[in-house]
Design goal:
The complex is a heterodimer of chains A (281) and B (304). With 281 residues, chain A is an all-alpha fold. Chain A is 75% helix and 0% strand. The chains are: A mainly alpha (281), B mainly alpha (304).
């Protein structure tokens, strides 16, 4: 009896050790990758690096200004496209949870969330690149905004669902029209949650490469025209990382460092917002 | 005579209708995007469906120069990388779910670990690919030399390793939530009967959350199937896959997503291009179905 108990207890303890070991083992690749990127990238970053376009093969120096500008323009443009659509349909989904439209729209959000990013690239290629006849930053932004939509919608919907109905009822009983109740009472109350959703979605799309391969394509020169091909950070990393030249690898390490820092900071700020406002995403 | 109040009311009513319509239009855009995606993919892959038939999917040779198209190497590549990644990642994601759901649900350590897991999902896949190419590939290469296979370094095995890290968060964060939802009377009952912690986990928590954890694994699988960039950089991009088992696992290959990424802009005639789009269509349908099943299981689980 005593021995049997001992066996069961030992088993329990061993199991716990295994679980703890495996759990913390997961953080090893993360830490190794972060440290490696920081180590390789931090020395590349200086003012010259941020303000110059990549140098041709054989020349030293050069920077990633074109990718920084390109990523910025495309992310802003896709935010401009995705945020109104996302917020308004999120409002619709939270306000009308039981209509047929909201069932199908919700289903489509689930589908969009799972669509491989490369497929989005193909589709936008036929929607925009083919008719326009050229790769363009605009098509890249559309592709990114499609990737952005599901996160914005879900965060809007879930934040607004958490608000107490008495808020809306109080405003309505004062005779405030419905659209003003939504825009002036409901949305401001859930603003932190919506904002964190938007920031998370930006953090996600800024690192997306696959949809840009056939849309924004890439451009070794500085360009601010949205109807021309445009470079972006992840695409620059992809082209230069797979090139055979060491100088280009160094550029790519620097770009990875900047991209990684941007994504990490966005994620941490989002965490702080959600913790302060006590929102569950 | 003009009634100011009445005018105000009218304009408000007008805005009210406009706003409500706007909400409906915006939600319909979502449905249009999804249906449009499906129609575009089907329409554009028509030439290859007509020219190559259904046998395309298990044709063994992919040689665009000779105009021979077979998707078998990519199907095998996709399935192998995804399932190997899944098998490697499952113990880890289950362990984290159990640890953060049951052993250590609160406190700074558990917060730290949870945030770390979310960061794994936040790191862009291109960075995993880049890191893998320069750090993981040399390690794998020397490992391959030791076990006596051709030391490519890149290949299906390397891609699976990176993928397995990338997909852990999807199963883990869901698993944590679900394990925390196990009603404590159930657990307390088992403890009262004299069960050890391991026995409670094995015979109360795991059976209770089994379907939910399975849904998490499905979501991970959907992610792994569609993952493009990291795999493209690490898999070696060859359409000829190894014949023996060892060559197959450790040799270079191609997945559906990576072949699209590599060859889409080079595809110079209709059948070639539409064969690639058909791969996209297959990928789209498979990931959508997997995701929807996963979501369905989760909804059923959480609503009970």
């Amino acid at each position: 009896m005593e021995a049997r108990l001992k066996v069961r207890n030992t088993k329990s303890i061993l199991f716990k050790c295994l679980i703890v070991f495996l759990s913390f083992l997961i953080t090893v690749p993360l830490i190794v990758i972060l440290l490696y990127i920081i180590k390789q990238g931090v020395l590349q970053v200086n003012w010259h690096f941020l303000t110059h376009v990549p140098a041709p093969v054989g020349e030293t120096g050069g920077g990633i200004a074109n990718a920084l500008v390109g990523s910025f323009i495309m992310v802003m443009l896709s935010a401009v496209i995705a945020i109104p659509i996302g917020m308004l349909s999120g409002i619709y989904l939270s306000e009308n949870p039981h209509t047929k439209l909201s069932y199908y729209a919700g289903l489509c959000v689930d589908i969009l969330q799972g669509v491989p990013s490369i497929v989005v690239g193909i589709v936008v290629y036929f929607w925009i690149v083919k008719p326009l006849g050229t790769f363009s930053a605009l098509s890249g932004s559309v592709a990114l905004s499609i990737m952005m939509l599901p996160i914005v919608i879900r965060s809007t919907e879930q934040t607004l669902r958490l608000l107490p109905p008495s808020l809306k009822e109080a405003a309505l009983s004062l005779g405030v029209p419905y659209y003003r109740v939504i825009l002036k009472v409901i949305v401001p109350c859930g603003f932190a949650g919506i904002l964190s959703g938007i920031m998370l979605s930006i953090a996600r799309i800024v690192g997306e490469t696959a949809p840009l391969l056939f849309t924004a394509f890439g451009n070794p020169y500085l360009s601010a025209s949205i109807t021309k091909p445009m470079e972006s950070l992840p695409h620059l990393i992809f082209t230069y990382a797979t090139s055979p030249y060491d100088e280009w690898h160094n550029l790519a390490w620097g770009a990875s460092f900047i991209l990684l820092m941007f994504v990490l900071i966005l994620n941490i700020v989002t965490k702080l917002i959600t913790r302060k406002w006590n929102i569950q995403l | 005579m003009k009634n100011k109040r009445l005018d105000l009311s009218y304009s408000q009513m007008k805005w009210e209708t406009i706003f409500k319509r706007l909400l409906i239009v915006m939600s319909s855009i979502l449905i249009l995007i999804v249906i449009g995606t499906l129609i575009t993919l089907i329409f554009k892959s028509m030439p290859s469906i007509k020219a190559l038939g259904i046998g395309y999917l298990w044709g063994k040779v992919w040689d665009p120069v000779q105009n021979i198209y077979g998707a078998y190497p990519f199907l095998i590549g996709t399935l192998l990388t995804s399932f190997m990644a899944l098998i490697i990642s499952i113990p880890f994601s289950y362990a984290v779910s159990i640890y953060l759901g049951e052993y250590n649900p609160k406190g700074w350590l558990s917060n730290l670990l949870k945030n770390a897991i979310e960061l794994i999902a936040a790191v862009p896949s291109i960075i995993y690919g880049f890191w893998g190419l320069f750090v993981l590939v040399p390690i794998i290469r020397s490992f391959e030399m030791k076990i006596g296979v051709a030391p490519y370094g890149i290949g299906i095995f390397t891609s699976s390793l990176i993928l397995s890290v990338m997909i852990i968060p999807y199963a883990a964060s869901l698993g944590i939530t679900l394990i925390r939802m196990v009603p404590s009377p159930l657990k307390e009952g088992a403890y009262a009967l004299g069960a050890t912690r391991f026995e409670v986990i094995r015979s109360v928590i795991m059976p209770f959350t089994r379907s939910g954890l399975f849904a998490g694994v499905l979501l991970s699988l959907g992610r792994a199937l569609g993952e493009t960039m990291a795999v493209t950089m690490l898999i070696g991009n060859t359409s000829a896959i190894g014949q023996t088992f060892k060559d197959l696992i450790f040799g270079p290959g191609n997945t559906m997503a990576s072949v699209i990424a590599n060859e889409f802009t080079e595809a110079d005639h209709t059948v070639y291009l539409s064969a690639l789009i058909e791969l996209g269509l297959v990928l789209f349908c498979v990931t959508v179905i997997i995701n929807l099943i996963g979501k369905r299981i989760i909804t059923r689980f959480t609503s009970n």
